[in-house]
Inverse folding.
């Protein structure tokens, strides 16, 4: 696959990266994926080959490249990831919260508001009876129309930024920055298994710097 997502907008690119990860887990096929986007490589690859002028400079996992870049070119190529990786855990599963705020599609919007108020959040994720992520409903949607008497599936958005639990944490946090979103839903086999927020980032950094205890 030669830069298959290069010409797409960021939202579509992110969605197709997630779909590619799902297909990889489902069919267990080896895919050779060419990209100049380091963030993309760290998100989707089991192994990364860094090539320059037709020569293979290094081949290994993202973690191996971060720990021991083969030369100065590799080090500079992944410099941004190295800075973040110095402080962050390796995988999304290590930093995600396993208790996201959820309601079923039939849940009343009034329930969503009460849940937002109780948990101090502005978004509720919508999952079906099997735990599959269907969408989200946010406080910003409710101020745009009369929500009384509606269920969350009538108002929800199905565009939910997501991450894979095995994905590199630095890649997920980069998307939080790029998409200007407060959270990423963590999805495995289409089921919601957790959530990553900016608070997750702060806690991960605090733990790395101070062992989880503020100075």
């Amino acid at each position: 696959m030669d830069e298959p997502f290069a010409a797409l907008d960021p939202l579509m690119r992110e969605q197709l990266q997630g779909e590619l990860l799902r297909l990889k887990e489902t069919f267990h096929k080896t895919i050779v994926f060419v990209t100049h986007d380091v963030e993309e490589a760290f998100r989707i690859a089991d192994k990364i080959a860094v090539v320059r002028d037709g020569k293979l400079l290094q081949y290994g996992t993202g973690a191996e490249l971060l720990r021991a870049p083969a030369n100065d070119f590799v080090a500079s190529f992944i410099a941004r990831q190295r800075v973040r990786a110095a402080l962050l855990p390796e995988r999304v599963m290590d930093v995600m919260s396993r208790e996201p705020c959820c309601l079923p599609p039939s849940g009343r919007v009034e329930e969503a508001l009460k849940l937002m108020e109780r948990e101090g959040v502005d978004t509720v994720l919508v999952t079906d009876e099997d735990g599959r992520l269907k969408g989200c409903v946010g406080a910003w949607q409710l101020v745009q129309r009369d929500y009384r008497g509606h269920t969350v599936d009538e108002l929800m958005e199905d565009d939910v930024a997501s991450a894979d639990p095995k994905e590199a944490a630095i890649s997920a946090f980069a998307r939080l920055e790029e998409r200007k979103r407060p959270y990423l839903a963590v999805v495995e086999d289409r089921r919601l298994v957790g959530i990553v927020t900016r608070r997750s980032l702060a806690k991960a950094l605090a733990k790395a710097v101070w062992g989880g205890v503020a100075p």
